[in-house]
Each structure stands twice: as structure tokens, then as C-alpha cells.
């Protein structure tokens, strides 16, 4: 067999093996590869993008196309066709460069499991007899006395002496299933040679789950015994058999301890490194712990390395140190309890009422932000309030244009705006805004207005008249009047909610102003987890954006794409792509559609809607309406009419707009039954 630590080392070499049999697919994202099993990401594969992913710890893989997964040995079995575990281990070692040392527990490795199991029982019995025999001979060595242990301590921990081999014996449990031996010269620890040999368990592991007593974490069982003896029953201790802190981490990952851990590795360089490494991982696991503090100056210079040195050097001082560490554990626990109580009380209605009243006073004059569209503001009870607003539409109805225009109008009114563009470059957005200003400066003579391309294309600009160039310069001046309050961040797949939070916090710290946040668009935010589905990542993003609006008490407005099957029906909440959290997490849902769309309950209506959508998209001047599908703190169902001039990136309110009332008396034969295809 192979040492379990070697097995773990081989598992960590998964990436090396993957890179030897396939290639990364950068298009699919970080840690994504072309699947070596189903070919996803390769020509002729199951999917065009690589769906093969390695987890962050580097020990597991999964293909989301063929739905296979596992560790390095699973992959070797599937890819190389090696069914025997030994062969899989050897293959993994070849790739990773790990040196293996195979040991046989039995000379006859071909004996079946039943025979092996049958043979183990007498071995355990011999261990127990051996330990009892060594315990009876404990008085024949002065080793324990030299370590500062009394006869009571030797008896309590069943310590023994093997006279024939000149070693002391430290049992790990009462049934004798595991023990260590140590030379009386103090040079080496040795494990049993058969039966329970292998990975050394944690000494006194039960102490982790025996109640509230603080538990010291040591390197040696001798140190653990020293601390438990000096502690007088007020603490417990375990030992890891060295500085291998991973043994502790793996144990607490399986089952969280019921006590506070006190890290007490040796006072040397290796011990310091182990302490810091263990502390970092325990923090990540939310396991309560502290680092032991000893009064090192109170111990003789020659005896200040480990707990047993302290025990022998100055027992009284060690007892005081243990008491001080226990007191610190209690202080930390009380502080944590007080913080938890404060957090609990903060959720009471009385405390909430204080926050409510303070909020009214703080925002008495700034409770909402007008959008710049009076009819839309009327339907939204004044404009944008702190919260999450989501705007959706099918393609070519001006989602980005409307969002950008509202952002411009809010910035022009004196508010700071952070605009996160995940699809278009900043220069494209600026050219759209300047194009809109040329249209507005023409006083309705739209033939003189300039398109975004007409502004940015040098060859066209050079042929413009002086009047046309003046129009563009005036538009630039109009844009520049508020551009200092509009902050544009661009990125493709590399901006996530956490990055947005950082930018908002940074802006507030630098300027003292809380900005409104615009996001174009939600579905292409950087995913939280490459292994999760699009829906899961979108749901997470929406919930985090909602939290962002609440934490900063500001407005977050995001664009959402629509499902493709919503081209022939009136807009509804189910139209939003990956709609689960969008529907429930948003405060306000807005949707754009061509004016005059019908519900789409019948085949006739759906055909008429499809024609309407097609005609609307074909027209440079498009009559659209914004529908309020959800308004957590206001009325729903309201509609606002707009004229969208797509060439010049401009929305204007349609003051002659009147929502159409529909007669819902349908021909029974024309109604589409629920659950059937259109």
C-alpha cells in the first residue's frame, strides 16, 4: 500500500495530469479545459466551449457537458483505461513526479479480505497485552521522572516501558489499537510495525469533542500530557505527532470541535510556520481558536522549546500561563457572545424604528432621484429610490440607449453616476451621448443631427461644413457640462459584483458622494463560480446587487436580457432571462416593448404581435412603451410612451401616448391551451 499523505500529494497533481492530456480553453474561463473525455471545446466535441473544470483546491474535476467528475484517479481510469488502483497510482506518480514507497501489510497480498479481517483481531489483542505488560514495567526506567511525570501521571495515561527494546510506550487509546514507542535516549518516535501501522492518528482526538474545556494543540504526546497535567483538569490537549497541521484541518473539516483550540506548537522556526499556517486555515473554517502565549523569559534558557520543557523548567509558571490562556479564551468567548447579543438586539423593532426615523431625517430632501423623464417619474412616484431596478427588453428596442440617457440626465441634474459597461467601450457610449445631443440641439430638424459613427469616423468629419462641425462641438460642450459626474467602467467578463462594490466604496471615500449605479448588463457580470449554471450565477449576482443597494442606500439600475420566446407576447416577469431572483429580488421591474402589444393569449394575437415587433425594429423611429411590471413600494401596470430615434440614440416622451385597452373576449377555438407549444 501507499502512505495516505502520498495519495493526497498525488491528488494535488491533478492539474499536471490534465495539462498532459488536453489543452486549456481560455474562451470558457479560468481553470477551464477542453474535455479529454467528450471533446467539448474541440472540433466535433459535444459542445463548442470547454466544459471541463478543475476546482479551486486543485484536487477535483468535472465536465459539465458529459457530466463526469472525480479526482485524478477517476480521470486516469476513464482516460487511460486503468481499472486497478495500484496502476492508477503509478500512472499519477509518473506525471506528477511523486516518489512512491509501496509497503505490504501482508506477505500474501492475494488473500481475500475476510482472511485479513480475521487476522486483525488477535493483533489488536496482542497490542493490549503488550501495553499492559509495558505499563507494569514503567517503574524500571527513570525516563518519566526525568520528564517531570509522577507515578500518578504515568498511571493516568497508561505510560509504559519495553525493557527488552529500551523504549517507552505511549498508547493512544485503551483498547491498544495504536501506540507509539520512543527511545529512552529521546531520539526517535516509532510507530507499530503491523496491524494499525500507517498514518499516525491524533493523540487524544476525543478531547476535541468532549465539551467546553479549551484544548491545546501540540506536536508531541509528551507535550499534551504535560499540559493536561499542569492544567489540573481545566484544559485538555491533543498532539499531531509533529508540525503537520493538515491532520488537524482535515479532522475539523469532518467534524467541527466543541471547544476553543489553543495552538501550542514548539517555540522554534518550524513550530512558528505551522502555527501561522494552521491559524490561516482555521480562520477560513470559522473554528474558534487562539495562539498560546507563554512567559518565555520565566523559563531557563536551556528549557524553552515545548510544553514539556516548560513543565520541567518552571511548573508553577506553566500553571499560571495555562490559567492566563484559559482566561483569554473566556474573554474572547464573552466578547463574541456580547457582539452576537448586540447584533441580535439590533434587529429588534425598537432599534429598527430608530434607524427608520434617522433615515427619514437624513433623506428628507433627497428621498428620490428624478430620471429626467417626467411621465416615467410620475409612474415611479418621483423617480428612482434606493433599491434595485432592472430594465429588460428584446433586442433593438433601445435598452442600452435608454439606460445611458437616464444616466446622463441624472448626472446633468448634479448626481454622481457610476456606469459599468460590460459590452460596449466607453468611447462608444460617449459617441452615442454626443449623437443624442446633436439631435436635441437641432430643434427638431433631425436631418442635421449626426449619428455616432458620423461623429467618430474621421473621413466623414473632414467633409462636414463649418455649421455641422459647430453642431458637434456644441454637443460635446453640452456633454462635457456633466461628464465630470459620470464615471464609466468598461470590461468584458471581468467585472463582477465584488469589483462594483469596491468601486462604489472607493468613490464614496474619495469624493464623499454616494453614486447611483448603472450596469449594462446583469447576465454578463463575471460569474461567482465557474462551476455553477448561468441561472445560479445570475441569481447570486441579483441578490448581491440588492445587498449593495441596501448597504450603500443608493439606486442600482441593471439591464437584463429577455428570453427569445417573448417576441410574440406582451412583456411579463417570466420574460426576463434567468428570471428566478430577478423577479423576487428586484424592487422595480421595467420592460420595453413596441406600443400596442397584445397579451398573446391566442394564436391570432401572437401573429399580430410578431408583425408589430418586426415592423418596429425595421423603423428608425420606433414607438415603444415602458411597462412597470413590479414596484415594491408603488403601483404596477403603468405604461409610459416613448419615441425612440435609433439613429441618434435618443428617447423622447410620447405625450400623445394612451395605453390601449384590450377586450379579452376570445374565440374559444383560438385560445392556446396551457402547456402546449405555440
Report on this structure.
The protein is α/β, with parallel strands linked by helices and 678 residues long. The chain has four domains: 4-96, DNA Primase, Chain A (Alpha-Beta Complex); 113-190, no CATH class; 205-335, 3-Layer(aba) Sandwich (Dna Topoisomerase Vi A Subunit, Chain: A, domain 2), CATH 3.40.1360.10; 374-670, P-loop containing nucleotide triphosphate hydrolases (Rossmann fold), CATH 3.40.50.300. The chain is 41% helix and 14% strand. It contains 23 helices and 21 strands. It has a nine-stranded mixed beta sheet with strand order 15-14-16-17-13-18-19-20-21, sandwiched between helices. A four-stranded antiparallel beta sheet has the order 1-2-3-4, covered by helices on one side. Strand 9, helix 8 (221-231) and strand 10 form a beta-alpha-beta unit. Helix 11 (307-313) crosses helix 12 (315-346), helix 16 crosses helix 19 (466-483) and helix 21 (534-552) runs parallel beside helix 22. The longest helix is centred in the middle third of the chain and has 32 residues, at 315-346. It is elongated. The two termini are 62 Å apart.
Could you outline the blueprint of secondary structure elements for this entry?
Elements (H helix, E strand, L loop, with lengths): L3 H8 L2 H8 L10 E2 L18 E3 L6 E3 L5 E2 L1 H9 L4 H12 L16 H24 L6 H4 L4 H6 L3 E3 L4 E5 L7 E5 L5 E2 L24 E4 L2 H11 L4 E4 L6 H9 L6 E3 L5 H16 L4 E3 L15 H7 L1 H32 L2 H14 L11 H6 L7 E7 L5 H14 L4 E5 L4 H16 L10 H5 L1 H5 L3 H18 L2 E5 L6 H15 L4 E5 L13 H19 L2 E7 L17 H7 L2 E7 L8 H16 L2 E11 L7 E7 L4 E4 L25
Parallel strand pairs: 9-10, 9-11, 11-12, 13-17, 13-18, 14-15, 14-16, 16-17
Antiparallel strand pairs: 1-2, 2-3, 3-4, 5-6, 6-7, 7-8, 18-19, 19-20, 20-21
